[in-house]
Amino acid sequence: MPPAMPRASPAKTPLHGTAAAPRRARLMSRDQAAAFIAAIAQHNPAPETELLYTDPFSLLVAVVMSAQTTDAAVNKVTPALFAAAPTPAAMAALGAEGIGGHIRRIGLWQAKAKNIALLAARLVAEHGGEVPAERAALEALPGVGRKTANVVLNVIFGEATMAVDTHIFRLGNRTGLAPGRTTRAVEDGLVRRIPAAMLRDAHHWLILHGRYICRARAPDCWRCPALSHCNYKDKVLAPP
Ligand code: SF4
Predict the structure, then answer these.
(1) Is there a domain that residue 192 lies in?
(2) Is 148 inside any structural domain?
(3) Which of 1, 164, 219, 230 is exposed most, by the fewest CB atoms within 10 A?
(4) Is residue 60 part of a domain?
(5) Is the CB of 223 under 6 A from ligand 1?
(6) Is the dihedral of CA 98, 152, 184, 32 positive or negative?
């Protein structure tokens, strides 16, 4: 019986569209894909993000900050930042320098501070200080790409999007769930193959499964609840 899983966090490691795909497995059948997702979901029926946020704006900022940075590191700096600038207008007024003063402990802080100041100003100027619910408008914001937009659309607006991070990219290929050479190919495969009713939460379940069980260096197949549904050929069937 695998251990209870912690809550999920939004996809975080940025991958480029041309990222090298890990070794691929035979494509799962649709029934097999549904059974796989049901198996990894069984201990965590209502997954949530680990990032601290209170509203759409603070989630958007937290996700922008989480690129190549752990949720834990982001969570250490956001409370003070959001206390100093709780709204897009206040964040824009704080400016890149002021924001940078709060987030120096996270990776790429200078670029992130600049983007957060710019996106806050854009929210004020173009969206009445609100986070837009449309993908195109989100992706037009500084520092916001498809993956960040997918997280916001999923967590805030309840859309069944699939933000492909390094864990989901690996899982899609390794297990046969949605093999693909690019993050977009894996995303499209997952959206096509995972039953619609499971798709929104599948984003979180897959991240957790990749982070804690189907890990990059050596998957813990011996304690994997989806073992019998997985097409990976080199399963690790005993603890190291
Ligand atoms: S059986 Fe192994 S490779 Fe397959 S999903 Fe589980 S941990 Fe990953």
Answers:
(1) no
(2) yes
(3) 1
(4) yes
(5) no
(6) positive
| Cβ of residue 174 lying under 6 Å from some atom of ligand 1 | yes
Active site residue 235: no
Task: Give residue-wise pLDDT tens across range 80-132.
Answer: 999 999 999 999 999 999 999 999 999 999 999 999 999 999 999 999 999 99
Distance 20 CA to ligand 1 centre (A): 20
**86 within some domain:** yes
Q: Which two tokens stand for residue 169?
A: 């990219």
Tell the residue number behind the tokens 């964040």, with chain if given. 91
> Identity (one letter) of the amino acid at 197?
A
Interval between CA 59 and ligand 1 midpoint (Å): 31
11: pLDDT strictly greater than 80: no
Ramachandran area for residue 68 (φ above 0: left; ψ -120 to 50: alpha; else beta): left
pTM of the model: 0.87
Range of the domain at 65: 56-155
Question: Closest Cα to residue 156, out of 132, 188, 136?
Answer: 132
What sign does the CA torsion over 229, 232, 237, 240 have? Answer: negative
pLDDT 10s digits, 186-236: 999 999 999 999 999 999 999 889 988 999 999 999 999 999 999 999 999
